[in-house]
Amino acid sequence: MATTKPRLSSFSRNLSAVSSSQTPGVKCGPNGTMFVSSGIADLDRSLVMVMEDAEAPHHMLLLRNFMSQGLVHGQPLLYASPSKDPRGFLGTLPSPASLKHDKSRDRESEQEKGLRIAWQYKKYMGENQPNFDSHRDNKQDYCNEFDFRKPLERHYFTRQRVNCVGIQHSKNLAALQEHCASFLAQHQRNDGSSALAGRIAIQSLCAPQCEHSNMDWEMLSFIKSLKGMVRSSNAVVVITFPPSLLSLSSTKRWQHMADTLLSVAAIPDEDKELAKLLSGYQDMVGLLNVQKVARLNTQVPLILEATTFSIKLQKRRFLVLECLNQAPVDGSSGSSYGTSGSCSGSSKAGTVDF
Questions:
Q1: Is the separation of the CB atoms in 55 and 244 below 8 Å?
Q2: In this model, does residue 149 exceed pLDDT 70?
Q3: How far apart are CA 198 and CA 186, in angstroms?
Q4: Would you say which domain of life the source belongs to (predicted)?
Q5: Percentage of residues of the chain with pLDDT beyond 70
Q6: DSSP-derived secondary structure for 19-68
């Protein structure tokens, strides 16, 4: 997920290239763009909007990872929700997985892919293991892996300011817009100086329990204003909304306003036809579709090798996105031959690099 940096011209020097790389949880990208992690190693760019599915709350998995990743990095967080107790939602955020779990999962993934390394080569890799671990640690500093069975420890909430806002009883969006403006004003970009990135998470913006849910133009105006404020700040916003509660024209406008647009969908239980068609069906909990990807400070279009991914909870603990693949022709079960996406570097077919 990307935050933009204003540039005077195409040839202007990026003075923050060095300083921003030293900011916790932030890394430099092309064309003066800075990136923060979504908390999902398979999904990493800005105003991000997630279209909810009325049949399954899979958007909450993405939102929890996004919020936890920011808190782990010590980044300020503004969370808005239509629930009666928004702060209570913090107790459901997942905790970072331990290094021991990460290593065991790496070994399991290698076995699943059928990697066979000669004994001498394996021995050589063992001798150079410290360098490999140090590289993994650097990657984990940017994007952690989270365990949904273990709640986030309380010290992450006290280490920095976390602001929770309830929008259920608000007659309009003026109060929420004021909270967002005040939050983003504290994260303005200065000339070449490194600043801590902020995160805003807004859950179910047009929820029916909110009094503003029938104010289509006011909600659209709020999104437009928020997008303008984000452009000049060092922050990222994630908004989830149920498109089924909006008119078709309003849904299209909301989609147009998003920098990155994702949608989640539930998978029917025990669908035998779908199980034959898709490999790894038994481990899937939902589907994620990438409808639009942020392209900031550039006019070069991005062509994804895949736009639909399966949402899996490995061991019912770790959230993983994998390229959706078709099962073998004979209908036999087998390991998925696609690769999961990555937020660092390039890999084989099926990568998500945004």
A1: no
A2: yes
A3: 9
A4: Eukaryota
A5: 64
A6: TGGGSTTEEE-GGG-EEE--S-TT----EEEEE-BTTB-HHHHHHHHHHH
Residue with tokens 């063992």: 126
User: Would you say 254 and 241 are in contact if contact means Cβ atoms under 8 Å apart?
Assistant: yes
Is 322 buried (19+), middle (13-18) or exposed (0-12) by CB count in 10 A?
buried
Q: Any idea of the CA torsion for 160, 44, 192, 32, to the nearest 10 degrees? A: -170
The tens digit of pLDDT for each residue in 15-47 reads: 444 444 456 666 665 555 666 777 665 554 478
* Cα 72 versus chain centre, distance: 14
The residue to which tokens 């690769």 are assigned? 339
The percentage of the chain sitting over the pLDDT mark of 90, rounded to a whole number, equals 33
DSSP 145: -
Among residues 312, 143, 342, which one has the least CA distance to residue 352? 342
Residue 326 pairs with which residues in a beta bridge?
A: 278
Give Cα separations from 15 to 6, 11, 21 (angstroms). 12, 12, 11
Whole-prediction pTM: 0.73
Q: Which of 214, 225, 208, 209 is nearest to 174 (CA)?
A: 225
Alpha-carbon gap, residue 145 to 68, rounded angstroms: 10
Q: Tell me which amino acid residue 283 is.
A: D
Give the type of residue at 309: F
pLDDT for res 99: 57
Residue (of 297, 215, 233) closest to 78 by Cα position: 233
End-to-end Cα distance, the chain: 7
> pLDDT, tens digit, for every residue of 202-232?
999 999 999 898 999 999 999 999 999 998 8
Model confidence band, residue 304 (pLDDT cutoffs 50, 70, 90) = confident
E strand intervals along the chain: 2-3, 26-28, 34-36, 47-51, 77-81, 94-96, 146-151, 162-166, 198-202, 235-241, 260-266, 284-292, 308-314, 318-323
